[in-house]
């Protein structure tokens, strides 16, 4: 508690200083490093000598969390640069940090971490957009309906700033109670659909980033809270609510150590069609058995895409007195480091789509159709072995606004749609129709909107016979 309070006081002081000069959105330039989407797995290659090299053998990442104060800590930066290929900001992208006053965004602290990480070849996990903790003070004085709107505006504002730049976003954090029901909070009091509203807004704001639900104490499959989250994700997937991943924080303490069924939990979530990741791992006294076990569980589940530890050295940890991380206070790797490294190198499954280079997209021109007021253009965003991500741009080339649109496209043999965002589909194979979502049917003159989809099957044949109509 002592450390946490000291940390909060430091934050409050620096926030006051920031506000002195902040009348509107403030941001430093976000460097334009493209989001790397593919690690090329090679399970037959030589063992990796660092955490990231060992993880990349199976197409996974190995991440850490850092606070802004570590940007001047050379000991931290040296290890982070050598060992990790994914970074999470400990506090700097949370709601209180990024929108201290309504509509007044401040991305300086988040951008500083983003820029350092990407300039050192790392990708970045965004943490977090909607949470009962670390909320902007103004959220506390809003009515339920105003809070719901403020949450959506927050998601829009922050995700627009980082659009196309992050690998994952923890859209919603820690929304479940230990009994498997929803945690009571001001966000929950805006209506039980607040989580799906957050995910829908997130997809619309940045279709390129994977959207995660993140929580702690969901590692044990038989635990009520795990089942509560599982049922929500299953429901979301069945109704097309856009969720791409589940983050299991993996804080293992004396009272909640590595459960024997951890792998079952990971594979059960993965079987719903989401990625899973260990997002904030730390283990009391850095037990080598537990660290090896949690790593093996992830390596055995193909859709377990990576592991992040919540800090690098024990001195970085929010639970510092328990020495729960992989490096000691003198920056030396501990025994747990070796057990994790060995388990990463022993991986026998790789992340789907990373083991062979993505096939070269066909060099056919985009397919365009034009009856009835709008045009639809297909673009292949991302192919992998056995699936692909596509995007369709709906353009209004006329002089009056569209008040709704419907796109027809015909998938090739073996292709089927798994998930659509920013649109509502009818059918998943053959000729599929996609109409606008409730929020993007109105397209102004000379304006456009897009919807995206994930499909099973080869990307080598572009969906054809594409047309757009508007009422
Ligand atoms: O590590 C973070 C610490 O510096 C903050 O004081 C604390 C405030 O809530 O949040 C910590 O990070 C938490 C993360 O955002 C969500 N899961 C639990 C983490 C540890 O408390």
UniProtKB/TrEMBL annotation:
Residues 367-471 form the CBM2 domain. It catalyses: Endohydrolysis of (1->4)-beta-D-xylosidic linkages in xylans. Pfam families: CBM_2, Glyco_hydro_10. One of its GO terms (biological process) is xylan catabolic process. The keyword Signal applies. Residues 348-357 have a biased composition (Low complexity). Keywords: Carbohydrate metabolism, Glycosidase, Hydrolase, Polysaccharide degradation, Signal, Xylan degradation. This is Beta-xylanase. InterPro entries: CBD2 (IPR001919), CBM2/CBM3_carb-bd_dom_sf (IPR008965), CBM2_carb-bd_dom_sf (IPR012291), GH (IPR017853), GH10 (IPR044846), GH10_dom (IPR001000). Belongs to the glycosyl hydrolase 10 (cellulase F) family. Its EC number is 3.2.1.8. Residues 45-343 form the GH10 domain. It comes from the Bacteria. It is an enzyme of class 3 (hydrolase). It comes from Winogradskya consettensis. One of its GO terms (molecular function) is polysaccharide binding.
């Amino acid at each position: 508690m002592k450390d946490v309070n000291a940390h909060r006081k430091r934050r409050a002081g620096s926030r006051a200083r920031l506000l002195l000069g902040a009348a509107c959105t403030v941001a430093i330039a976000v460097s334009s490093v493209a989001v790397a989407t593919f690690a090329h797995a090679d399970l037959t290659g030589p063992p990796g000598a660092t955490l990231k090299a060992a993880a990349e053998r199976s197409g996974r990442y190995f991440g850490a969390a850092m606070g802004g104060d570590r940007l001047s800590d050379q000991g931290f930066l040296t290890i982070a640069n050598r060992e990790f290929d994914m970074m999470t900001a400990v506090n700097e992208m949370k709601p209180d940090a990024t929108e201290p006053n309504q509509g007044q965004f401040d991305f300086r602290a988040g951008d500083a971490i983003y820029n350092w990480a990407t300039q050192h070849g790392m990708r970045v996990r965004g943490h977090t957009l909607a949470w009962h903790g670390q909320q902007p003070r103004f959220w506390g004085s809003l009515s339920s309906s105003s809070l719901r709107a403020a949450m959506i505006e927050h998601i829009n504002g922050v995700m627009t700033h980082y659009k196309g730049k992050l690998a994952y976003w923890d859209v919603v954090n820690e929304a479940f109670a230990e009994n498997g029901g929803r945690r009571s909070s001001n966000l929950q009091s805006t209506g039980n659909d607040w989580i799906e509203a957050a995910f829908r807004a997130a997809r619309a704001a940045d279709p390129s980033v994977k959207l995660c639900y993140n929580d702690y104490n969901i590692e044990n499959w038989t635990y009520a809270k795990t089942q509560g989250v599982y049922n929500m994700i299953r429901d979301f997937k069945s109704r097309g609510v856009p969720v791409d991943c589940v983050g299991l924080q993996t804080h293992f303490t004396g009272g909640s150590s590595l459960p024997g069924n951890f792998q079952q939990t990971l594979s059960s979530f993965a079987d719903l069609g989401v990625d899973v990741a260990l997002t904030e791992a730390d283990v009391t006294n850095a037990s080598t058995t537990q660290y090896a076990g949690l790593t093996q569980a992830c390596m055995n589940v193909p859709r377990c895409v990576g592991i992040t530890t919540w800090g690098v050295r024990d001195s970085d940890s929010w639970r510092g007195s328990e020495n729960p991380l992989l490096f000691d206070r003198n920056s030396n790797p501990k025994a747990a480091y070796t057990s994790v490294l060995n388990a990463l190198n022993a991986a026998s499954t790789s992340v789907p789509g990373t083991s062979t280079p993505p096939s070269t997209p066909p060099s056919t021109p985009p397919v365009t159709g034009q009856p009835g007021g709008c045009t639809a253009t297909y673009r292949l965003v991302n192919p992998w072995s056995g699936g692909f991500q596509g995007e369709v741009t709906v353009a209004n080339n006329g002089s009056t606004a569209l008040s709704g649109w419907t796109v027809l496209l015909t998938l090739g043999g073996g292709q089927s749609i798994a998930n659509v965002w920013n649109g509502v589909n009818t059918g998943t194979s053959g000729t599929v129709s996609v109409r606008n979502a409730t929020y993007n049917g109105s397209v102004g003159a000379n304006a456009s909107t897009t919807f995206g989809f994930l499909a099973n099957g080869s990307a080598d044949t572009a969906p054809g016979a594409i047309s757009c109509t508007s009422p």
